[in-house]
Amino acid sequence: MPYYADVVHHTKNRIRIKLRDKVRDPAFYEHLKQSAADLPGVESVAINPITGSILCTGMDLDAHQIAAALVQKSLLRFEAAPALHPVQRAVQPFMTLSRKLKGMTGGEVGLTEAGFLALLTIGVIQILRGNITAPPWYTAFWYAFGVFSKALVEKYAAEPEPPLKDHPMSPQNAESQTPSEPEPIQMEPEFE
């Protein structure tokens, strides 16, 4: 019988799943740990039976795919996707546009880089028109510098993953999200 769980936090390198009820079955946790470790992209799995927490770490993890795979293996059930913070909802369309731009340019130019280039171009145009004493050219340079420095910070900080769109409990998602061949996993005990 699958236990109810929620994805309580996810980034591209970490996914935390929390069981709703206390499960006092060590064999279940061991089986869950092994099953999660076999999923694509998962490098390590840490389970804390006391808190009912499962932490999967790896590279480019997809929370939706991992949740669907655990549902398909009849280990867990997810009822609803985690709610987004209002700021995340406001930024989400810009993140989507940035991903589309990166897809069109082979990952070279996102929204931040495009904004930087546009503001820099506006500044150059103002200089070429002779508006050297007018505020717009150096204001555009200042904004371009701000966008560029923000891009550097974002480049070295973890980006939040997009929200879980389709519910993993739906049958079509559980069937369509079959995991591919698992990669070798190095298990390290980690408890939080």
What does the secondary structure layout of this molecule look like, with pairings?
Layout: E1 3-10, E2 14-19, H1 26-37, E3 42-48, E4 53-58, H2 63-72, E5 76-78, H3 86-104, H4 111-128, H5 135-156, H6 171-176
Parallel strand pairs: 1-5
Antiparallel strand pairs: 1-2, 2-4, 3-4
- Order of helix and strand elements from N to C terminus: EEHEEHEHHHH
Q: Profile the largest sheet.
A: 5 strands, mixed
Helix and strand content put the structural class at alpha+beta
Integer count of domains: 2
| CATH fold topology of the largest domain | Alpha-Beta Plaits
**Helix segment count?**
6
Describe this structure in words.
With 192 residues, the protein is α+β, with helices and mostly antiparallel strands. It has 2 domains: 3-82 and 164-176, Alpha-Beta Plaits (2-Layer Sandwich); 86-156, no CATH class. Helix content is 45%, strand content 16%. It is built from 6 helices and 5 strands. The chain has helices at 26-37, 63-72, 86-104, 111-128, 135-156, 171-176, and strands at 3-10, 14-19, 42-48, 53-58, 76-78. The protein has a 5-stranded mixed beta sheet with strand order 3-4-2-1-5, with helices on one face. β1 (3-10) and β2 (14-19) form a beta hairpin.
Quick structural summary:
The chain is an alpha+beta fold. 45% of the residues lie in helices and 16% in strands.
Highlighted features:
single chain, 192 residues, alpha+beta, Alpha-Beta Plaits, 2 domains, 5-stranded mixed β-sheet, 5 strands
